[in-house]
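Sharing a chain and its predicted structure for anyone who wants a worked example. Both blocks are below, sequence first, tokens second.
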Amino acid sequence: MKYIVIVGDGMADRPLQELGGKTPLQVAHKPHIDALAKQSKMGMIQTIPLGLPPGSDVGALSILGYNPHEFLTGRAPLEAAASGIDLKPDEVAFRCNLVTLSSDKVVFSPNTQEFPLMEDYSAGNIDTQEAKALIECLQQNLSNEEIQFHPGVGYRHLMVWKGGSLKLSCTPPHDIPGQPIGKYLPFGPAAEKLWALQTKAAALLAEHPVNLERKRKGQKPANSVWFWGQGRRPTMPTFKEKYGMEGCLVSAVDLSRGIGRLLGLEVLKVPGMTGYLDTNYVGKAQAAMYALKEVDFAYIHVEAPDEAGHKGKVDDKIKAIEDIDTFVVAEVLKQAKTLGAFRLLLLADHATPVGLKVHTSEAVPFLLFDSLKPFPSPHPAYDELVSHMQPPCWVENGFELMAAFLEKVAVFPEKNS
């Protein structure tokens, strides 16, 4: 038996007036997914446990069967693992976004009289090579024995702080679109060090040739950095230690790849992966299915629906869902015919409603298909209306579903109500 997980990041949503009270999942044309839905066990899964923020780090660990309350130390350490950064026990990793603020001139301090707005959490989806030049500039001018900057992909980068504080309160920039940044500055012990770093970085970035050229072209400049997602290196059993199974993972984002590396999964490289609508969907599916000739578990992560949700672009979110159906699910099903018996789990790691532009904590729909044991569904499509099925199926502790999916436990972890 082969086991395949497909994650549409942030794919779940809420009813929208412009869609006649429907969600993007309900409106999207997804014939391959809905054909599976008619033969699958479907229900709702709480990927975000009570008391934890609704992030992809939390949701991904839940999906993979790891209790986030037990194993999550922060988002940035997971991304550090993807970049091959070996965090020392006294080092704290921070996510370091390149962002666009509404003003190039800003002093990061609670005493500042007027703060700019968070105009774009991704600096206009800045290109990786442009971003690398900016992060290298910060490393050259601002690094020391305590502080190191590490380039990543697109707008996503890292800062490692030797002896850094874990008691800081930091807000993800994608949670504050269009809002003044003042009340969202890092807060807590030694926060003034981060404010000073941000102030110095903003001054350097404003005059950097990359940003001057972006302005000339009418593009958004990456005129500031934003720190969040801090934590120390986590310790957790590998996927093989936990489930007795070798596996692979394919994703365009460092967060997912970092989780894969920490769990001992083979992290696949696919040309053309971007994390956006232009990503190489087919290449992801083909790489995972080819790897399944040697291993038994594959995890395919697609970021595009989440990015569309954060931008508030409903048409882009619908297109991302349809592209997952056309280029990922269809290709997986085509290739699976050559592998024999298989199980497929399709779901989102969390919801990213386009009307809110942020992650939310509500349960999301899941679909579990078994090629040997079709399960007639009372609901004919994969969407949020699965929550109204009779009888209902709710997985209250999301991290318990993986063991059932892999057939390691006899009892399906649902809570009927």
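Comments welcome. The longest helix spans residues 314-336.
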